[in-house]
Q: What sequence folds into this?
């Protein structure tokens, strides 16, 4: 079926208008092609008005100008919430122009939000089905290896304490103990990989959380590194595990700091909202990563640092996925690295443990 093109104007340029414009950019109705022609609001500083202006749409402080400029407009979406404005629209609109009031528009994007979250949930289930077998194998191996390691380590420690032991043998025993400790640490990491991460989700302010972590992190920055924080004011409260998200953000900041320890520079931390997702961006001015390194950056045990564990970005990704979000890493040699954490604004479906 061929899509019908529908010309649309919006009356009311507040936050709801901005959300709707972003939604229509990201979601294409199945049988309609909605073309936004213009936005009207009495406040030229309203967020939807400003967003429409940036996007190149016609904007005006008098909605009647919309009808003069677009006399053949098909649809008016009224978002002011004012019955008086709605009545005036019906009086002045072109005869064939249809009207959706703010309640109808709200229902429209609530339905779309539910469908998007349902798709997210289904994709997450598919991912989990693909990795469940590997996780079970890792958990079993870690359990089977840890027990004999504990026995070997315990016996070696007892032997090393014997007074009559030959010094040369004691050296060998201590070397065995060191390797046992290393393997025990490895088993702990394998256990972490296989253990489901179940965040304790609570409604909280992402901006306040990010601000607190950044302020705490600033205290330990060397003098050659600065940090800039830009918070988008319109970000709503969302469901998240504050402790896990704070740990993940701290890990990203630590990575950014380490990347610039020799050269110095600025770390940029930014929050942003895009309809049904909020994002935390951490950008550094370090050396960046080669493509081959970037492809492995979130793999457990992979590290380019001499004393690295290879668990930093893996942990961050696991935390983000446990919140139903996604992690994006953008980097090129000589251009620094940008890590973007995207989290859902709403979560109607429980996210399975990661």
A:
């Amino acid at each position: 079926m061929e899509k019908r093109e529908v010309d649309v104007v919006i009356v009311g340029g507040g936050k709801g208008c901005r959300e709707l414009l972003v939604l229509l950019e990201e979601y294409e109705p199945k049988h309609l092609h909605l073309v936004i022609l213009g936005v009207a609001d009495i406040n030229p500083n309203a967020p939807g008005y400003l967003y429409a202006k940036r996007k190149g749409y016609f904007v005006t402080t008098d909605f009647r100008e919309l009808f003069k400029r677009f006399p053949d407009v098909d649809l008016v979406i009224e978002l002011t919430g004012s019955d008086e404005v709605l009545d005036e629209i019906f009086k002045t609109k072109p005869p064939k122009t249809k009207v959706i009031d703010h309640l109808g528009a709200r229902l429209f994007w609530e339905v779309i939000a539910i469908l998007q979250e349902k798709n997210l949930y289904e994709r997450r289930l598919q991912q989990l089905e693909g990795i469940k077998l590997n996780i079970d194998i890792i958990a079993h191996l870690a359990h089977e290896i840890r027990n004999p390691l504990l026995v070997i380590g315990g016996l070696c420690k007892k032997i090393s304490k014997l007074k009559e032991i030959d010094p040369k043998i004691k050296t060998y025993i201590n070397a065995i103990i060191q390797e046992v400790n290393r393997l025990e640490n490895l088993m702990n990491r394998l256990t972490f990989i296989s253990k489901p991460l179940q965040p304790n989700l609570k409604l909280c302010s992402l901006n306040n959380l990010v601000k607190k972590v950044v302020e705490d992190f600033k205290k330990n920055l060397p003098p050659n590194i600065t940090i800039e924080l830009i918070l988008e004011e319109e970000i709503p409260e969302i469901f998240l595990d504050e402790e896990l998200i704070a740990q993940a953000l701290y890990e990203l900041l630590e990575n950014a700091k380490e990347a610039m320890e020799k050269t110095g520079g600025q770390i940029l931390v930014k929050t942003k909202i895009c309809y049904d997702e909020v994002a935390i961006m951490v950008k550094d001015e370090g050396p960046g990563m080669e493509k081959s390194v970037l492809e492995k950056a979130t793999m457990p045990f992979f590290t380019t640092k001499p004393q690295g564990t290879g668990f930093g970005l893996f942990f961050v990704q696991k935390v983000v996925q446990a919140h139903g979000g996604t992690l994006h890493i953008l980097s090129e040699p000589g251009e620094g690295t940008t890590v973007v954490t995207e989290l859902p604004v709403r979560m109607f479906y429980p996210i399975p443990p990661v």
Remarks:
- Residues 129-194 form one domain.
- The first helix runs from residue 15 to 26.
- The longest strand covers residues 265-274.
- The chain has a mean pLDDT of 83.
